[in-house]
């Protein structure tokens, strides 16, 4: 039909519809906290505290890593302390007792671990008071006696050297380590090896 070209049926001046460009979704880690920083920060804290206690410094580090502003993180951590959810003194005591009992760590090693977790020195000192000299010596003897069982083919000098090294890595002083190792190795050679259950 005359008069109908390729532009027929399209109103004069109109352009084809072009949808607006869509922004690529940002990575979850790059987005950072949402608009409600406090709600996000509170969820982070509760998630971190589920199952185990943590020091205030550890929690502050987690919030900073998730880009929670300090003006939000600080007051929120204060409130968590007020209600007892964050308590460095309690955390240090529990950590000390647990690691001393399960890993046989000496006070020196326990102090190093707590400092790495950002606990204040006065709080650490108070927590370490719960580990007595007798308890520390007993834990060293248990460690040495257990390790000695796997050294039956070694000569005495090698046994002593390795056991003293083990106790040193656990934070025991050289004097205490040598005394305990000599006692344990001597008892084993004499056939008078103490039963660890008698030390508890």
UniProtKB/TrEMBL annotation:
Residue ranges constituting the RecX third three-helical domain according to the UniProt record: 136-181
One Pfam family linked to the record: RecX_HTH1
Region Disordered, annotated ranges: 1-37
Superkingdom, taxonomy of origin: Bacteria
Chief site of localization: cytoplasm
Keywords, ordered alphabetically: Cytoplasm
Domain RecX second three-helical: 87-128
Domain RecX first three-helical: 41-79
UniProt subcellular location: Cytoplasm
Basic and acidic residues bias: start-end ranges: 24-37
Reported function: Modulates RecA activity.
Similarity section: Belongs to the RecX family.
Name of this chain's protein: Regulatory protein RecX
């Amino acid at each position: 039909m005359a008069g109908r070209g390729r532009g027929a049926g399209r109103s004069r001046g109109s352009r084809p519809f072009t949808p607006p460009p869509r922004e690529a979704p940002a990575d979850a880690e790059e987005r950072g906290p949402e608009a409600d920083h406090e709600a996000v920060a509170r969820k982070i804290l509760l998630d971190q505290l589920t199952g185990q206690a943590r020091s205030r410094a550890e929690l502050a580090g987690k919030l900073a890593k998730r880009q929670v502003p300090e003006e939000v993180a600080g007051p929120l951590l204060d409130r968590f302390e007020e209600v007892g959810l964050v308590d460095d003194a309690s955390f240090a005591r529990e950590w000390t007792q647990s690691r001393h009992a399960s890993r046989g760590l000496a006070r020196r090693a326990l102090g190093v671990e707590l400092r790495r977790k950002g606990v204040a020195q006065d709080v650490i000192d108070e927590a370490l008071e719960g580990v007595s000299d007798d308890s520390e010596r007993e834990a060293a003897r248990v460690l040495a006696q257990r390790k000695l069982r796997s050294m039956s083919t070694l000569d005495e000098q090698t046994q002593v050297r390795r056991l003293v090294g083990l106790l040193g890595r656990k934070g025991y002083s050289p004097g205490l380590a040598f005394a305990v190792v000599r006692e344990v190795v001597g008892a084993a050679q004499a056939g008078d090896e103490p039963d660890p259950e008698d030390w508890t």
